[in-house]
């Protein structure tokens, strides 16, 4: 069972926060959690119908939200999302670069080039495309905080997912590089490394691989998968002012998986 409750502590009060991949899974959960924590949220994803619905739900609860249809593999789309935040709300204080895909569960020697290209394009180039305009905006406005969504697969290997593992390790590298480069300019860059989390990606994996869910749970000390809100809560803390001396960190949110 998930131990989270839904109380809030205004961790992100007054902050303008961009969330990519916001139409489902961890991204949608982050939009809701961040707004409950006091943030104005700018939601970016490819599916406008879902973005519009989620934005409406957040506004109905009394928070401020806007959205931009955005494909993070296109540099212009990522720049447009940041520009929307600056134009509509005056600045960008924080960003959760969450958009990503899972790829196939196939042995490396059988993996197609198309799978490798797509996984790397979304999971690595997508974050690269977002980091550049986000950092530029934060430099214009005196600093900020960024959290990239990696994975436990960015810290250890898991079977039959070579491109995904390579991509998520690359996210860790980009996080550390950006954190080092902009630490003295008021920008903190960290990453979360989720364990198996309930999302459309993982549900699809479980459907296509009977028995996988039971295997994954048996490998996790807490014996379960995470709720998306649990990952979002960790990202909210990393984006907040509660940890000003924390940068370049990759935080496992994994029920103890990498601690074994």
TrEMBL record:
Q: Which Gene3D superfamilies match?
A: NAD(P)-binding Rossmann-like Domain
Keywords linked to the UniProt accession: Oxidoreductase
Keyword Iron assigned to the entry: answer is no
InterPro entries reported in the protein's UniProt record: KR_dom, NAD(P)-bd_dom_sf, SDR_fam
SMART domains attached to this UniProt entry: PKS_KR
* Record domain Ketoreductase: where: 15-195
The record's GO molecular-function terms, alphabetically, read: oxidoreductase activity
Q: Where is the signal peptide?
A: none
Q: Name one Pfam family in it.
A: adh_short_C2
The family line of this record is: Belongs to the short-chain dehydrogenases/reductases (SDR) family.
Q: Which PANTHER family match?
A: BLR0893 PROTEIN (PTHR24321:SF11), DEHYDROGENASES, SHORT CHAIN (PTHR24321)
List the protein's name: Short-chain dehydrogenase
Q: Which organism is it from?
A: Streptomyces showdoensis
What lineage is on file? Bacteria, Bacillati, Actinomycetota, Actinomycetes, Kitasatosporales
